[in-house]
Automatic annotation (TrEMBL):
Positions of the Thioredoxin domain: 13-138
One annotated Gene Ontology cellular component of this protein: cytosol
CDD domains: ybbN
Keywords: Disulfide bond, Electron transport, Redox-active center, Transport
Family: Belongs to the thioredoxin family.
Coiled coil: none
Pfam families reported in the protein's UniProt record: Thioredoxin (PF00085), TPR_19 (PF14559), TPR_20 (PF14561)
Protein name per the record: Thioredoxin
GO MF entries: protein-disulfide reductase activity
NCBIfam families reported in the protein's UniProt record: thioredoxin
GO biological processes: cell redox homeostasis; response to stress
């Protein structure tokens, strides 16, 4: 999917996939500041509990300091908040450097969790500064991966709560950061389904790379679409309910009604219909009610409350 064929490149309905991912970048220099003896505790000790803080001890007369400054500032800014840089002029504020035993400059000490954790001395090359930041803050991709998982979780919760537009914006933001994220793609397709854009959801899941197409989240959405298409052909639910009122053991009608209730979002009722058939006649459709219930579980997800409740009832029936 690319260019104009990408279903996420434009707004659809009331949903937009144009949300930016993560926090807005800080202004230039926003990760860098000067500190004093009086503000060191706040600028370094307290702040290092949020992310590592690199303290650059320098002096105006120090030639290597002048060489290091533009390089370390460049790398810190490019790290975009993984670390912050605090600079301390030891001519004006010598006490902290003395307490840390610093005898030559430039000296850079990394504070993590309120304590000195690592450091280096001298005007080292840019590559070594990058390695140093990776060492104290973790690899560059680690923070983004954790953020993506948090955003996906929030999007799932919004969608479950009925905020389709809010969920779509978050899924779209993840896809901007990670275009091949299967969970985000599946979530976006679920938003389309919730907006009754079933054909667009199927289009979004067409011609995917095999590694993405085979992902469990993608497969679950495809099964959901199949269930929706099947339910459309099963007749009028009111007529089916009337049939069951006259004959509670009309298992074929009950199975159809279960499939309809499932796509309507009435998962507990759908499961109860299937469990009723199982209690009455496991031979119906060659144990078809149980097989259908397991297909529901695949789509609902292992942790869905309806799955948990129905599995508990199913276990009690099978093993009591």
């Amino acid at each position: 999917m690319s260019g104009n064929d990408n279903p996420y490149s434009n707004s659809y309905g009331q949903m937009s996939a144009s949300a930016s991912f993560g926090a807005a970048p800080a202004a230039a220099g926003g990760y860098i500041k000067d500190t004093t003896t009086a503000t060191f505790a706040k600028d370094v000790i307290e702040e290092s509990r949020n992310q590592p803080v690199l303290v650059d001890f320098w002096a105006p007369w120090c030639g290597p300091c002048k060489q290091l400054t533009p390089v370390i500032e460049k790398v810190v800014n490019e790290a975009e908040g993984r670390v912050k840089l605090v600079k301390m002029n030891i001519d004006d504020h010598p006490s902290i450097a003395g307490q840390l035993g610093i005898q030559s400059i430039p000296a850079v000490i990394a504070f993590v969790g309120g304590r000195p954790a690592d450091g280096f001395m001298g005007a080292v090359p840019e590559s070594q500064i990058r390695e140093f930041i990776d060492r104290v803050a973790g690899p560059a991709g680690a923070d983004q991966a954790a953020e993506i998982e948090a955003v996906l979780k929030e999007a799932d919760e919004l969608l479950a709560g009925g905020d389709v537009n809010g969920a779509a914006q978050l899924y779209g933001a993840v896809m901007q950061a990670d275009p091949e994220n299967a969970k985000a793609l599946a979530g976006m397709a679920n938003c389309m389904i919730a907006a009754n854009q079933h054909e667009r959801a199927r289009e979004a899941l067409t011609d995917l790379p095999e590694t993405i197409a085979n992902d469990a989240a993608i497969q679950a959405v495809l099964k959901k679409l199949e269930q929706i298409e099947e339910a459309r052909k099963l007749g009028d639910p009111v007529a089916l309910e009337h049939e069951l009122a006259n004959d509670p053991d009309a298992h074929e009608a009950r199975l159809k009604l279960a499939k309809i209730r499932n796509v309507e979002g009435m998962r507990d009722e759908a499961a109860d219909h299937l469990l009723y058939i199982m209690r009455k006649d496991r031979s119906f459709d060659d144990d078809g009610a149980r097989r259908q219930l397991l297909q529901f579980f695949d789509v609902w997800g292992f942790k869905d409350p309806a799955t948990v409740a129905a599995r508990r009832k199913l276990s009690a029936m099978l093993f009591s």
